[in-house]
UniProtKB/TrEMBL annotation:
<keyword id="KW-0812">Transmembrane</keyword>
<protein>
    <recommendedName>
        <fullName>HTTM-like domain-containing protein</fullName>
    </recommendedName>
</protein>
<feature type="transmembrane region" description="Helical">
    <location>
        <begin position="217"/>
        <end position="239"/>
    </location>
</feature>
<feature type="domain" description="HTTM-like">
    <location>
        <begin position="26"/>
        <end position="283"/>
    </location>
</feature>
<feature type="transmembrane region" description="Helical">
    <location>
        <begin position="78"/>
        <end position="101"/>
    </location>
</feature>
<feature type="transmembrane region" description="Helical">
    <location>
        <begin position="246"/>
        <end position="278"/>
    </location>
</feature>
<feature type="transmembrane region" description="Helical">
    <location>
        <begin position="162"/>
        <end position="182"/>
    </location>
</feature>
<feature type="transmembrane region" description="Helical">
    <location>
        <begin position="134"/>
        <end position="150"/>
    </location>
</feature>
<dbReference type="GO" id="GO:0012505">
    <property type="term" value="C:endomembrane system"/>
</dbReference>
<dbReference type="InterPro" id="IPR011020">
    <property type="entry name" value="HTTM-like"/>
</dbReference>
<feature type="transmembrane region" description="Helical">
    <location>
        <begin position="108"/>
        <end position="128"/>
    </location>
</feature>
<feature type="transmembrane region" description="Helical">
    <location>
        <begin position="35"/>
        <end position="58"/>
    </location>
</feature>
<keyword id="KW-1133">Transmembrane helix</keyword>
<keyword id="KW-0472">Membrane</keyword>
C-alpha cells in the first residue's frame, strides 16, 4: 500500500471497481478524509466511556465470580477485571483517545486506543450481554493506525487509507446483513410475521410511536421492510460518487434516528462508523476556496491580507 501525491483528493471516486476485487479494496482515499474521521472517532470515546456506556464502570464493583469472559478473553487469557484494572483501563483509554485525536504518533497512540477499547469491550460484554453495534467501530479503531499521518488539509490520496475505509464500509454492511440472517436463523419468519415490533413499542414506545399500535397492518409491514433492507445491505458496496455517499449516510442515520425516536434504541458506535463513508475532504476544499476569496477559512479567524 502506498500514498500518492498526484491523485487529487477531491475527485469523486467514480472509477469502476467490482466490490471485493483488489482494485476496489485499495482505491485511493484522500488523507484529509481520514484526518477528520480520526478526530470524530477518537473524541467519541470519552463520550462513550462516560455517557453512553457509563455502566461498564460499574463492573469494577461486582464480584469477580460474575465474570464470564468472551471467547477472545479466554483465548488471550485476559486478566479478570478487578476494581483497579477497570479504573486503569478506563482512564488510560480516555487519555490515549484524546491524545490520538491530535494526530500525533498516529500509529503508536492509535494501536493503544484500539487495544484499550477492545479490553473495555471485553469488560463490558463478559457479564451476560453482548451488543452488536460495536464491531464496525472496533474495525475502524483497528485500521486507523495503519494509515499513518494525515492532516486536515492533506491533498494526497492513499491506498492504505482506501483499504482502511473499505474495511469499515464492509463491516458496516455486514452488521446489517448479518442482523437479518440472525433474525431468520433464530426467529424464523415469525420475526417478520409476528408481533416483534408491537412488543418493542409496548415495552419501550414513545409518544411518537404509540399511535402505531392502533394501525394493525403497519408494524408487521415495518418488520418485512427491515428484513428486506438488511438483506439488501450488500448494495452499500456499490456507492462511488460523493453524492451517493452523502445520500447513503443520511439514509442510514435517518433510520437510526427514527428507531431512537420510536423505541429509544440508538447504536451510537455504529453511527460513528457510518460517518467514515462521508467525503470529509470537501471541508478542506471549502476552506481553501474561502481563503482564496479573501474570507476567513475558519469562523472567527481574521481574513488574509
Amino acid at each position: 500500500m502506498k500514498t500518492s501525491a498526484t491523485t487529487p483528493p477531491v475527485r469523486p471516486e467514480t472509477a469502476p471497481a467490482f466490490p471485493g476485487t483488489p482494485r476496489w479494496w485499495f482505491r485511493p482515499v484522500p488523507l484529509a478524509r481520514i484526518a477528520v474521521f480520526r478526530v470524530i472517532a477518537y473524541l467519541f470515546i470519552p463520550v462513550d466511556v462516560f455517557l453512553t456506556t457509563a455502566w461498564v464502570r460499574a463492573h469494577a464493583d461486582v464480584p469477580t465470580d460474575w465474570y464470564a469472559p468472551l471467547l477472545i478473553g479466554r483465548l488471550l487469557d485476559l486478566p479478570t477485571p478487578t476494581h483497579t484494572l477497570v479504573l486503569v483501563v478506563q482512564w488510560a483509554l480516555v487519555i490515549a483517545a484524546v491524545a490520538a485525536a491530535t494526530g500525533r504518533a498516529p500509529r503508536l497512540l492509535g494501536f493503544a486506543v484500539f487495544l484499550l477499547y477492545s479490553e473495555w469491550m471485553v469488560i463490558a460484554m463478559s457479564y451476560g450481554k453482548v451488543d452488536h453495534d460495536r464491531i464496525a467501530f472496533l474495525v475502524a479503531l483497528a485500521v486507523l493506525p495503519t494509515i499513518g499521518r494525515a492532516r486536515l488539509r492533506d491533498r494526497r490520496s492513499s491506498e492504505a487509507a482506501g483499504f482502511a475505509m473499505a474495511a469499515v464500509l464492509v463491516t458496516v454492511m455486514l452488521t446489517y446483513f448479518l442482523a437479518a440472517w440472525a433474525k431468520i436463523r433464530f426467529g424464523g419468519w415469525d420475526w417478520a410475521t409476528g408481533a416483534t415490533m408491537t412488543r418493542a413499542v409496548v415495552r419501550r414506545g414513545t409518544d411518537l410511536s404509540m399511535w402505531t399500535l392502533d394501525v394493525a397492518w403497519l408494524l408487521p409491514t415495518v418488520q418485512w421492510v427491515m428484513i428486506a433492507l438488511e438483506l439488501a445491505a450488500p448494495l452499500i458496496l456499490l456507492v462511488r460518487t460523493d453524492r451517493a455517499r452523502i445520500g447513503l449516510v443520511l439514509f442510514l442515520l435517518g433510520f437510526h434516528v427514527m428507531v431512537y425516536a420510536g423505541v429509544g434504541i440508538i447504536f451510537l458506535p455504529h453511527c460513528i462508523a457510518i460517518l467514515s463513508i462521508l467525503p470529509w475532504e470537501r471541508l478542506s476544499v471549502l476552506q481553501r476556496r474561502e481563503s482564496r476569496a479573501g474570507l476567513p477559512a475558519v469562523p472567527g479567524a481574521p481574513a488574509p491580507g
